[in-house]
From TrEMBL:
PROSITE patterns: NUDIX, NUDIX_BOX. This is NUDIX domain-containing protein. The keyword Cell division does not apply. It comes from Pseudonocardia petroleophila. Residues 6-129 form the Nudix hydrolase domain.
Length: 131
């Protein structure tokens, strides 16, 4: 498959707490306004993925993170999203920036929340579902 150069580069962060729950945010803006997703956003000019991930996680969740390995990539509309493992270094979970809410979610929570399209299927493919 050839890679499209016209896609908007974005990052997402997969952070888990000690109980194995995944950090999700409820999106405040389109695409997916009102739906739950992993935190993240656009890579701004002059940023690499790691810098964008640290900034987006702080802005949307209140947490300071250390980016880890690339878990996977997806294309959703005009966005090419690179999702990375994150280690939480500090802070307290609080919705900010364009997030309406932020919380740690178990597998049971995922089944009950309105999620962005294909989130569960993608996480399952990557072996990244919460407990």
């Amino acid at each position: 498959m050839t890679e499209r150069n016209d896609l908007i580069a974005c990052v997402g962060g997969l952070a888990y707490d000690d109980a194995g729950r995944l950090l999700l945010i409820r999106r405040g803006n389109e695409p997916g306004r009102g739906l739950w997703s992993v935190p993240g956003g656009r890579v701004e000019a002059g940023e690499d993925d790691a810098a964008a991930l640290v900034r987006e996680m702080r802005e949307e969740t209140g947490l300071d993170v250390a980016p880890g390995r690339l878990i996977g990539r997806v294309t959703r509309g005009p966005y090419r999203i690179s999702d990375y493992a994150c280690t939480v270094l500090g802070g307290a979970v609080a919705a900010g920036d364009d997030a309406l809410d932020a919380r740690w979610c178990s597998a049971a929570d995922l089944a009950a929340l309105p999620l962005v399209d294909e989130l569960v299927e993608t996480l399952a493919t990557w072996g990244a579902l919460p407990r």
